[in-house]
């Protein structure tokens, strides 16, 4: 079973991609800001191959913006983030009464299997406490998916926290079995809301990042972004750039370096408009939300 683990806002490097034609993002990066864009990714389960969910990369770690069941993917809450625990297409063969450990305190229990009505009664718990349950019907493929949506998750309602796909049921003389071939689970209990002005540091000698702007999504081409303020570095910290991507252009920048805990300005001097930015400060650091 493929499991995901993430510590919120921990990083070893900063990688920022600026989409071509996104003028505001390019302007922000050129004045020292760091743009983290919401993108989409597909579910591992084959039965959900035509569906996607939002993700955002923050300083090398991937998170899921909370999203509702009754909206478009760009309606996700850009600044309300959680870690992804599980995205699996491995087949789980479970008997009635069996409990599947999903990780980080979450569990899925098969309460009952009724072959006459072709239903499996499933229950989601966390730390042994009831969260949600459903009799999953086998009559249509759509009904074989149980989407768990909860209210009051970081003040949001109808937030998708888990998806389960039931492939088949079997009842024999001694055993009742359910085949589950898709599980997706977000750690909604540990979700958190980021606000403008939140500081992420101290980053040892690097100073701090500050969340400067929250850009909500508008359509499929703009799913939303988080804009962070400049990082402070000391004047003896090497900063490099890579010119190997495009041999026809020359990458470059100038830097105005100040003392520790003060902002530093980087100015783009490349001969062509950059398609992406890679910031490498050569030292590992861990960010913590103040």
Question: What do these coordinates show?
Answer:
- The chain is mainly beta and about 290 residues long.
- Helix content is about 5%, strand content about 50%.
- A hairpin with a 4-residue loop joins β14 (about 160-170) and β15.
Summary tags:
5-stranded antiparallel sheet; 8-stranded antiparallel sheet; Tick-borne Encephalitis virus Glycoprotein, domain 1; S_layer-rel_Mac; 290 residues; S-layer family duplication domain-containing protein; mainly beta
Mind describing the biggest β-sheet? Answer: 8 strands, antiparallel
Shape estimate: elongated
CA radius of gyration is 23 Å
- List the quaternary state of the chains: single chain
Element-by-element helix/strand order: EEHEEEEEEEEEEEEEEEEEEEEE
Unreliable segments (pLDDT under 50, ≥5 consecutive)? 5-30, 202-207, 233-237, 281-290
The overall number of domains is: 2
N/C terminus separation:
34 Å
Structural classification:
mainly beta
What is the β-strand count?
Answer: 23
Helical segment tally?
1
- Major β-sheet strand ordering: 16-6-5-4-3-19-18-17
Portion in strands: over 45%
Q: Helix fraction?
A: under 10%
User: Average pLDDT value?
Assistant: 79
Domain S-layer family duplication: 38-204
Protein name: S-layer family duplication domain-containing protein
InterPro entries: S_layer-rel_Mac
Organism: Methanosarcina siciliae T4/M
């Amino acid at each position: 079973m493929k499991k995901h683990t993430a510590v919120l806002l921990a990083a070893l490097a900063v990688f920022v991609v600026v989409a071509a034609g996104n003028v505001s993002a390019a302007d922000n990066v050129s004045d020292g800001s760091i743009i983290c864009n919401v993108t989409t990714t597909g579910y591992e389960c084959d039965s959900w191959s035509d569906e996607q969910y939002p993700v955002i990369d923050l300083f090398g770690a991937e998170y899921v913006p909370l999203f509702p069941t009754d909206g478009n993917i760009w309606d996700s809450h850009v600044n309300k983030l959680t870690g992804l625990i599980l995205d699996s297409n491995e087949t789980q063969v479970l008997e009635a009464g069996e409990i599947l450990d999903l990780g980080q305190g979450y569990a899925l229990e098969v309460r009952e299997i009724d072959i006459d009505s072709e239903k499996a009664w499933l229950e989601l718990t966390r730390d042994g406490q009831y969260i949600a349950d459903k009799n999953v019907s086998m009559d249509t493929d759509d009904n074989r998916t149980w989407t768990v949506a909860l209210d009051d998750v970081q003040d949001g309602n109808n937030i998708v926290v888990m998806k389960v796909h039931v492939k088949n049921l079997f009842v024999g003389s001694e055993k009742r079995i359910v085949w589950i071939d898709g599980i997706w689970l977000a750690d909604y209990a540990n979700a958190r809301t980021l606000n403008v002005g939140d500081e992420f540091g101290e980053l040892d000698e690097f100073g701090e990042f500050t969340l400067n702007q929250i850009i909500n999504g508008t359509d499929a081409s703009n799913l939303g972004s988080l804009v962070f303020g400049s990082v402070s570095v000391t004047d003896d910290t090497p900063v490099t750039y890579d010119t190997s991507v495009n041999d026809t252009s020359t990458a470059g920048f100038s830097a105005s370096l100040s003392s520790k805990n003060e902002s530093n300005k980087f100015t783009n001097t490349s001969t062509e408009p950059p398609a992406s930015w890679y910031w490498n400060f050569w030292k590992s650091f861990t960010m913590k939300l103040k």
